[in-house]
Request: fold
Amino acid sequence: MPELAQKIRDIIKPENIVYAKSPLMNDDVMHYCPGCSHGVVHRLIGEVIEEMGIQDQTIGVSPVGCAVFAYKYIDIDWHEAAHGRAPAVATGIKRVMPEKYVFSYQGDGDLAAIGTAETFHAVNRGENIVMIFINNAIYGMTGGQMAPTTLVGQVTSTTPYGRNVDLNGYPLRITELLAQLPGAAYVTRQSVQNAAAVRKTKKAIRKAFEIQAMKKGTAFVEVVSTCSSGWKLSPVDSNKWMEENMFPQYPLGDLKDGTRADANDYSIKG
Reply:
């Protein structure tokens, strides 16, 4: 037993640690469904804030829906907002305390449906905030209803025969629309279904916070995500479905980068 204990101590020496949980992540056990992307994005936000050394300077704003629980897991100051109103609340906080890093964390039913007006006008004004947008093409918490981002033909609890364009209209590619607004400094669409994608998303989130520090305008990060429960698929099948169906509709990459000379070029950069 003493030999085993010594081996364990050797393994956990700082020079041998491959990955350690960010101290910004609470010890609360995450309640999200298996395969949910929220937990991964939470971790990335926590890591970025830790690495930038801005824990005591950061305020997050989360609204109604699965996104509301972000406050349970990331140890920073949080403010809750009514459904869809996170950009407006974030705007108020940032204007009163401009020295703070302020971000909203929202799902598609929130940001792209009831909160469409708040989203567009905050970005059009160029509010100096970060907006993190989780797009899983469905209302996850409230029963799997159709969202603005639901794909054509996609089955939900309110479209049991699939989304019908004649009845329900087209999926809303809100990120492309926001990229065309002059107040948008940085607009990108990423994902977290594998290690390479996770690294790209972390880089994008960090860049968004750095752009806020440079006072360039609104930084917007969409994360195309899964909802295993809402889609009625296993976590593995959800990732496959997302790659085969969502990525063609919502292609990944930077849409606008105000730190580059081609800031007015809104095409996907890959």
About this structure: The domain at 25-257 is CATH 3.40.50.970 (Rossmann fold).
